[in-house]
Amino acid sequence: MVARDYELAYETILRFTSGASLPIQATLIGELSQRVVIRDAQGRPVRLSGYTQGRAEIRDASGRAIFRGRYYDSRTIRTLAGDEALTVVGQSWWTIGRMDLVKGLAPGTLSRWVGD
Q: I need a labelling partner for 83 at 20 to 30 A (CA). Which of 23, 47, 69, 101 fits?
């Protein structure tokens, strides 16, 4: 699967192990995303795996940019329901450099940010 030239915007709250939290707004401009469908022994699609690259802007709650730059997610994993519509279920995770992010089940939540 290949996707090019797309935009994704979302709001979430980063919650750190120290107890601190940081509400953010993010815009991702995807330039290229390539994924493969991994199937089980019965041929049902169970996972998407791949990478994506583009540009990102992260803003604080007042809209001030706190990060602008390029991103390359080298290992994206999405669990699938097993149907041919490739319905995503559960959590997803991806690695950015040395930082692992786990997206929670509820929309707009980021349940874990582990790394440097």
A: 101
Torsion sign over Cα 5, 46, 96, 16 = positive
The first and second tokens of residue 38, run together, are 């991994």
Burial class (CB in 10 A: 0-12, 13-18, 19+), 52: buried
CA distance 45 to 26: 30
Sheet arrangement for strand 2-15? 2-15, 21-39, 45-60, 65-80, 88-96, 99-103, 110-114
- Position 57 scores a pLDDT of 92
Walk along the chain (116 residues) in steps of 10 and give the mean pLDDT of each run: 90 89 91 93 93 91 91 83 88 50 45 41
